[in-house]
Design a protein that fits this description.
Blueprint (H helix, E strand, L loop, with lengths): L3 H15 L24 E3 L19 E2 L2 E3 L5 E8 L9 E4 L3 E9 L7 E9 L9 E4 L21 E8 L7 E8 L5 E12 L2
Parallel strand pairs: 5-11
Antiparallel strand pairs: 1-3, 2-4, 3-11, 4-6, 6-9, 7-8, 7-10, 10-11
Length: 201
Amino acid sequence: MVSIETFFLVLFSNLVFASPTPFLNRNNLLPRQNSQAPFRPLSSQTSSDHSIEGGWSSQSSSLGRSTPFDTCAASGTVDSINIDPCSAPDGEICEFHSGLNYTITIHFTPQTSSSNPRNNLVAYSSNESLGQGIISYPYSGQSFDACEYTSCPIPSDQLSIYKYEFKTLDSDVDYLMFNITDGIEGLSLFCAGFNITLIKD
């Protein structure tokens, strides 16, 4: 028999760790047309050539290829998103192959500092074969501790680097959304998403 303490612990964990952030709920999603984002973005842009420490630019092959991205409600800004490996030309949608390793590097400037940032990676799928329209779910395998992907504490008004290394799953996904918040209910430090093409080998 499950104790009442265990029941509420499981219930609380599901509410905190499994639910997407409020502005990513299904009521905010829009039908996908012409490879647009599954939500209403605040802006769409391409990665810039903004230089940082070490003379980095979006053309650097060591960081992969830059990809166009959308931004959503956040206190900070995103300068660029790079994907490695990516065989597509800079500014075009990258192909992901299931079961392979990829690195996503995001350069961002938050307007608020955080010593306990929370990582939220949400995957979207518009695969019509699912019969459910657009669906979203927390991407499996991620840590909710954003300090595993960026240096902590995160300073305000300074360019920071977020690096997410992972192996793609054999699941339907054609859009990835990254949202880093100050704790569970704090302000979003940055929020951005981009289209991908998943090839199931």
